[in-house]
Amino acid sequence: MTSPAPELTPAQRTEIELLARGKQEKSRAMRELGLSETPEAAHALLLRSGLWPESRTPYADRLHATTQPLELPVPEFPAEARLDLTHLDAFAIDDEGNRDPDDAVGIEALGGGLTRLWVHVADVAALVPAGSDLDTAARSRGATLYLPDQTVGMLPDALVERAGLGLHETSPALSVSLDLDESGNADAVDVQLTRVRVTRLSYTQAQARLDAAEKPFVSLLRLARASRLLRESEGALSIDLPEVRIKADEHTVTITPMPKPEMRFVVQECMTLAGWGAAIFADDNHVPLPFATQDYPTREVRGEGLSSQWARRKTLARTRFQPAPGPHHGMGLDLYVQVTSPMRRYLDLVVHQQLRSFLSGGEPMPGQLMASHIAQSGLNADATRQAERLSRRHHTLRLIAAQPEREWEGVVVDKRGPQATLLIPELAFDLPLSTPAPLGSVLKVRLSDVNLPALSARARPL
């Protein structure tokens, strides 16, 4: 039986909350109560005392990921020459409800067996030059923070409204073009400052247009398939694990599987091609960028089941970012940069700043200075991603705790002797389990003993 929570003075509560949020390392109040001076123990006491609701998540605070919106003035776009592409169709395709459309795709028939793929990206660097207050603030965040109960932008909402593609009749963009043959080989690549006219679509809407055999979407699919085959011939890996969308508030949690229409694959492949094309352009023109590189997988994993997908993901080395180009073996590319999310990822913004400086006749940031920006923003982005992961697990456990009698179907995706990792596909949630069941087994389980501060639960096979 759990002992009743002690009465806390306002001073004790403040001290214990600071410990739970990772804002101080010690707590005399916890020590006097005979409790461990850890953030998890403080969190448990605050829950037991009713001082924090179960919806409260302390992980962003602990990891020093800010949850305050960025409020800095946003300049107007500069008056400058741009290639007018408003006569070409372009589509910003994203999940329903997306609020920061920063990339769009389109095609242009060239003849001679070539098709020009256009990937347009919001020209954020026109509003956020290197060294500006907005740039420094974005670097300190590293990335947009996506939590189940809120989104905290890397950049101000006003900038997203000004620069987002398809939010106005026409939009300034930095556009990557690749002239591709039917096998996915690039005959030419280019990067230009443009003006585009963009139609926003959800993946569902875009899939409906593909199913109706509308020409631009059919052509995009053909190019994406050819590109994917070419990359696979160079060793690219494909990992298909369950993904879910988690939304939470003080009272409820909803978890819905992410649909995977073919147009999602198309857009992902186009974004990959844009990163490859931008990297080639920069390398040809000696523009330092934060190139993304990855070593060979540590071993080959065969099979397509969930346990194989899980094992394959574990073979991947961490992506490194460096001022000089190098191969990205997981993608099957000889060089690559992330270029399509400058509103949401700081290193993408750096790519834009460097390319825009070159295109405008300026002097790009030298590699040594850029390397320091890579390191600083990387630490901050890592904290953001970790806060997201822990917060998602927290709210998933809230949903599990609310349904103690529910049966869940899990798959044994890893095995170390009697100890296993069980993946619940419906929740994209994994937890340890002691079972004699072999790898790949499908088990019915109930989940109990939810411990929010420890982010744990117990699976009991039925």
From TrEMBL:
GO terms for molecular function: 3'-5'-RNA exonuclease activity; RNA binding. Pfam families: HTH_RNase_II (PF23161), RNase_II_C_S1 (PF18614), RNB (PF00773). Residues 82-361 form the RNB domain. InterPro entries: HTH_RNase_II (IPR056404), NA-bd_OB-fold (IPR012340), RNase_II/R (IPR001900), RNase_II_C_S1 (IPR040596), RNR_Ribonuclease (IPR050180), WH-like_DNA-bd_sf (IPR036388). One of its GO terms (cellular component) is P-body. One of its GO terms (biological process) is mRNA catabolic process. This is Ribonuclease II.
